[in-house]
Specification:
Blueprint: E1 5-12, H1 15-24, E2 32-39, E3 57-64, H2 72-85, E4 92-94, E5 98-101, E6 104-114, E7 117-124, H3 148-163, H4 167-177, E8 184-187, E9 190-197, E10 203-207, E11 210-214
Parallel strand pairs: 1-2
Antiparallel strand pairs: 2-3, 3-7, 4-5, 5-6, 6-7, 8-9, 9-10, 10-11
Helix pairs in contact: 2-3, 2-4
Length: 221
């Protein structure tokens, strides 16, 4: 992590919120990492709570950008999946960037833009996993002993790698790891076929003989 500036805390409300506040105050630079042992107000996509006890990885990466990148979600998902694979654990990706092991969620990502920066927040269950009403969860320790600092180091290298990889290779790897290809999913009340993601990062669904391109919406199994 030599090229990153690291801010590490025992417990803060949210690494994501801390990073966004630093951006607003003009006190942050490109390639910054905000790391916390625990969070009191962790959050995921759509303002959902991310339960954040000690023993897991809670981190936000801050990058300076020229424009929004609709492909970033896939780059990050592949980076997380490849990181977990490096420990001998086999994950899959649930669109767009949830990481599952044995159909149970082990990692979530939130991506937020602010000014000239993007903040990529990642939570990975290492030694504990919460009980969540809407889906099952798991932790890496159920499969192998994983050191958090080693996990972060590998994750950082993989994020650098996949953010700088031609998207045709990112797309190919994402689809290799995706768990919903050629399966039925629910989108805006309709059951459709999950076909692929295209070269622009759009999710391609099929409803009968019609194809639907999806950017940023949620789908369900």
């Amino acid at each position: 992590m030599a090229s990153y500036k690291l801010f590490s805390f025992d417990k803060i409300p949210s690494t994501q919120t801390y990073a966004l506040n630093m951006i607003a105050d003009g006190k942050i630079s490109d390639h910054t990492i905000i790391l916390a042992e625990a969070q009191s107000a962790g959050r995921g996509r759509y303002k959902r709570q991310w339960i954040s006890h000690h023993g897991n990885l809670y981190v936000s990466f801050v990058f300076k950008i020229e424009e929004r990148n609709p492909k970033l979600s896939y780059q990050v998902a592949v980076a997380i999946a490849e990181t977990i694979l490096s420990f001998g654990i086999k994950p899959v990706i649930k669109w767009p960037n949830d990481i599952l092991i044995d159909d149970k969620k082990v990692s979530g990502t939130i991506i937020e833009y602010s000014g000239d920066f993007v903040v990529v927040g990642i939570g990975i269950n290492i030694n504990s996993n919460p009980t969540v009403e809407s889906y099952e969860t798991t932790k890496l320790a159920d499969y192998k002993k994983v050191n958090r600092d080693e996990l972060l180091n590998k994750l950082t290298k993989n994020i650098d790698k996949w953010m700088n990889t031609d998207f045709k290779f990112v797309r190919s790897r994402w689809m290799d790891l995706a768990c919903q290809i050629n399966k039925k999913v629910k989108y805006r009340g309709n059951i459709m076929d999950f076909i692929e993601i295209n070269e622009n990062g759009a999710l391609v669904l099929r409803n009968g003989d019609k194809y639907v391109m999806v950017y940023g919406d949620e789908i369900g199994v």
